[in-house]
């Protein structure tokens, strides 16, 4: 006897952990501009000039969008960006569990820019059934760049992620399977009892 794999659609309760790491590399990953909630990064100075907020657009008690914004000055144009955002996914529909995961954005700049905006949808990416590890995945990613750079003006990095409904694959417990078997058995028994009686 083997348990089936079930599929359900659930919008997880997504909450940002208010932990992040932004690396703005100027040249060959040497002395990047670092914005983070962490204390140190390879002995580099950390400039935490970031604003993060979550928005509940439809007022259902669940957050729908994350907006991230970082401001910093640099004496050289930024060549590439890496952004790590830490999230909790809370599932409640069939069982209750919380999964911590990291969303990862990376982008190489082909020209000097003053502003970069990331847009995308955040989903829970499963490597196997829900009993195993999962990762956050950003889909439908779009990047917008504002060309031109001067070291007198602030560099702005923005990210906007929409928390999406998506399919979740899980393996039911033995008790859940027995519950459905029992319901089917009772239904068949009642039908047969009715037929036998009449």
UniProtKB/TrEMBL annotation:
Q: Does the keyword tRNA processing apply?
A: no
How would you describe this protein's topology in the membrane? Answer: Multi-pass membrane protein
Q: Which InterPro entries match?
A: TMEM231
Q: What is its main location?
A: membrane
**Biological process terms in GO annotation:** cilium assembly; regulation of protein localization
Localization recorded for this chain is:
Cell projection, Cilium membrane
User: May I have one GO cellular component term?
Assistant: ciliary membrane
Q: Which domain of life is it from?
A: Eukaryota
Q: Which keywords does UniProt give here?
A: Cell membrane, Cell projection, Cilium, Glycoprotein, Membrane, Transmembrane, Transmembrane helix
Family affiliation: Belongs to the TMEM231 family.
Its function? Transmembrane component of the tectonic-like complex, a complex localized at the transition zone of primary cilia and acting as a barrier that prevents diffusion of transmembrane proteins between the cilia and plasma membranes. Required for ciliogenesis and sonic hedgehog/SHH signaling.
User: What is the name of the protein in this document?
Assistant: Transmembrane protein 231
Source species taxonomy: Eukaryota, Metazoa, Ecdysozoa, Arthropoda, Hexapoda
């Amino acid at each position: 006897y083997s348990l089936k794999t079930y599929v359900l659609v659930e919008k997880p309760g997504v909450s940002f952990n208010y932990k992040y790491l932004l690396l703005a590399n100027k040249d060959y990953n040497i002395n990047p501009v670092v914005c983070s909630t962490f204390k140190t990064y390879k002995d580099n100075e950390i400039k935490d000039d970031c604003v993060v907020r979550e928005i509940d657009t439809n007022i259902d008690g669940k957050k729908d969008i994350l907006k991230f914004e970082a401001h910093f000055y640099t004496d050289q144009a930024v060549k590439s960006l890496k952004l790590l955002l830490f999230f909790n996914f809370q599932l409640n529909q069939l069982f209750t569990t919380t999964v911590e995961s990291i969303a990862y954005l990376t982008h190489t700049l082909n020209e000097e820019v003053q502003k970069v905006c990331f847009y995308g949808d955040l989903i829970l990416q499963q490597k196997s059934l829900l009993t195993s590890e999962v990762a956050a995945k950003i889909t439908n990613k779009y990047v917008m760049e504002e060309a031109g750079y001067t070291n007198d003006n602030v560099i702005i990095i923005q990210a906007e992620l929409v928390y999406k409904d998506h399919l979740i694959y899980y393996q039911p417990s033995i008790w859940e399977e027995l519950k459905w078997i029992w319901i089917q058995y009772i239904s068949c028994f009642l039908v047969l009892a009715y037929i036998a009686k009449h």
